[in-house]
Amino acid sequence: MSAIRVLVADDERNLRELLVRELARRGHQAEGVGDGEAALARLGEGGWDVVVLDMRLPGRSGIEVLRELSRWPEAPQVIVLTGYQEVATAVEAMKLGAYDYLTKPTRIEELDVLVQKAAEKARLLRENTALRAYAPGAEPFGGILTRDPRMQEVLRMIERVAPTESAVLVLGESGTGKELVARAIHERSPRAGRAFVPIHCGALPREVLESELFGHERGAFTGAVAAKPGLLELADGGTLFLDEIGEMEPESQVRLLRVLETGTFFRVGGTRPRRVDLRVVAATNRDLAEALRAGRFRQDLYYRINTITIQLPPLRERRQDIALLAEHFLERAAAYGRKRLGARARACLEAYPWPGNVRELQHAIERAVILARGEEIEPEDLPPEVACGPAPAAAPAPGSLEAVERQHIVATLRQVGGHRGKAAALLEIDPKTLYRKILHYKIAPEEWR
Q1: Which of 6, 104, 157, 284 could form a disulfide with 246 if both were Cys (CB 3.0 to 4.6 A apart)?
Q2: pTM score
């Protein structure tokens, strides 16, 4: 069993060091900070089980820190310390989600028991979240985790669209979570009690796709020894998710359009019309407007599936979600061993452009958990294209040409909100060159936020 990670936030240095030392003697991995801002910065790195939080911190008070943590989707459990036996403060802390509170002077034996109980609660909550993320009606949003403003708008759009019968087209690069969005729409719709049926429109040849989609009668083709219902029938009353619909061949588009217009279809080799009542959610990573101009996609079908459009941003444009998702995938991969993300590995993850988006991040974390020798994931445990390599070179001397260049890069990244593509355009350099300079100058994401 891995050691419990405890952060002690107290401005009294002697007490803070005593608590850290005594908790470490009892097998916990403890660290200390002296103010509220430092506490939030360390907690933001993820991987903490419990925070022991003094209420009277300089800068941001303990209550302010607790209030901020209450908005985090996967915050650690909080044990509150107060040297002022104020019932009102303790009550407010408990209302904000604190696990328990202790008054100073604190007995280390009592604190140790609370730390163990709080860590156990944190573990159960993580397991419960993982289970709900893959169950019907899962909260929040079928496993979609985000702090990004654009993704938050996507979640609000899901809430508005789900109760309707409107067709939805989800746009986004491969690996951005288009099927998760489709499932979330289904699970919040009046059809949630019926089937959600996905099919990848580009993964099968046309004849096989139509047989899977529409079903077939006995003898319809060689090997059709029995009648088989298609996915349209399985989705009756529920939701049909047409993934990568932009890859569907024109002949299949005609047959699908008829279903959407009339609610009826024929099985392959069949003569009896069949009726279905279903909702369609489609997704693609292609430019359908270009496909329309080129004649590869039917205009009438496009308007049928495009009542509501939801655009998903790529992971490289939602960098504040990278650490959050990485911690989530660490929990998912805990069967291979409980690991935590080191600061250098985290910096590598946040600097990498993630062309494969969330799916690539998930696979990178799973690989790192399997290959990491210790309890902390280092850059060398990551895939070669993600790893930053050895520790970056020392920062350039103040006033040098390199120092001026580093400062200019940081200022440009801050100007565009950390968007590396836009920053590279303003700097008039290739995005790959910018990526190498960020690693060379050891520019942390915190510097441009």
Answers
A1: 284
A2: 0.59
